Amino acid sequence: MSVVLACDLGGTSFRAALVDAQGTTLAESMIPGPASLDRMGRSEVDPTAWWQILIEACAAIAKAQPALFSHVQAVAICGVTRTQVFLGRDGEPLRPAMTWKDTRSEAAASRLRERLGNAHPESARINAFHPLARLAWLHEQELHEEEATFQNLGSVLEPKDYLNFRLTGRQAGDPVSLARLLASAEIVAGADPLAAVGLSSAILPEVLEPCQIVGPVKSGLPTPFDAITGVPVFCSSNDTWAAVAGLGAMRPGYAYNISGTTEVLGVVSERAAEAEGLMTVDWRGVSQLGGPSQNGADTVSWLLSLLARGDGDHAAIGRDIDALLAGPRHAQPLLFLPYLQGERVPYWNPSLRGAFIGLNRQHGATDLAWAVLEGVAFLNRIVLERAEAALGAPVSEIRFGGGAANNRLWCQIKADICGRPVAIGHAKEPGILGAAIIAWTGLGRFASLAEAQAALVGVAARFEPDPARAALYDHLFSLYRRSEAALAPISTELAALSHGTDAPTARRPAP
Questions:
Q1: Domains of the chain
Q2: Are the C-beta atoms of 385 and 421 separated by less than 8 Å?
Q3: What is the pLDDT of residues 188-232, one digit of tens each?
Q4: How large is the angle between the packed helices 159-168 and 47-64, nearest 10 degrees?
């Protein structure tokens, strides 16, 4: 039986699976991801740790299913984005990778925007989470601890591209994951963003389409890859792009919501559009308008830890939150602003902070749990409304995937708050199915990604908005927006205290 090896490098875990041409997972393995060093805006991971967990996860599958593993026809890895791996000219990591949570480049981003002015279209998109801002930060640190990094920098890779490089020996990336870095390499009206940080386009890897082959698995690799030497490795894309394909939402008129460690929500359309705070990305035949947040299952995990519930096991989050939601709820609801780590889409403000609003002495753990789930859904609604307004039409449904999609109550909350049907794909791990779709399409089993989605993706459940709850949630949403605007300046001042600096001018969320 022919299978592909599909892998998903997430924010907290690494998953690998053998998937057949019908989209069925025949064997799988999950390894907790390496812990990132998170402190005072710093968030770093040793990229070689990702290579080790790739080996470990695949070795577990090969040990359990040796015959099946020997029939692997291709490899496709999707993974976290907004994370940079810095390699030297010898292909070795120069320093730990800066993850999607790292905010140290906020000040460097501000200075870079000032230098570039308005001449370059990418200038307005530069923030603490932008790859060019991280490079600007490294440049500013050149005379200190980062001197060797900057002087010897050979290339900047996405995490999944680093793993592909270790498998094949070739450095390449896809235009979806590299969109912001590629845009920074374009010279517009004489403005050269990369040159502004002392670099050139030589740091960019070769660009391939997701369904193109990076190269064959090279010889000399450790077990179990010695068993699949010569098998093609496809470029693939980031975990969001792959998961959207795995949900069957990579087609116009659909919204997607991937809820893992953090959440990503966007709208897929035939034409590109712009909306404040949202990312417009060419998704190779369609356009995406939306992007990643800083909250999701990790926010729920924080609440459970705060309440001394559960054991920190991400697989048990759904069970633990269900136990909380089963308790009695107070008649007066709470509001929760979920900005525990600042926010990316739609505010791109690392200084935003979270808050519970409306607490009284009778509120308990159940009320906090409801507020957290609703707060994340209110942020979903902001992104959805901005995207739909820019495109001039509502979406037909939201395809929802990731760990939180297993919680039926959260599915219903999202449907009620967003006012759109929420459909759950049949695949437990849409990122894995999406990576498999990339591999099977690249192998020629399907003529296109659209054909592969139609053949391999099904809907397991559908949640319709409850009209009876619409008025209440509309009122709460209005209060949520007012709370954001009121507390943003306070968040900025509080965040500044942690750095021992005067508070900069607050950026209020736009209405």
A1: 3-237 (3.30.420.40), 248-451+458-511 (3.30.420.40)
A2: no
A3: 988 899 999 999 999 999 999 999 999 999 999 999 999 999 999
A4: 60
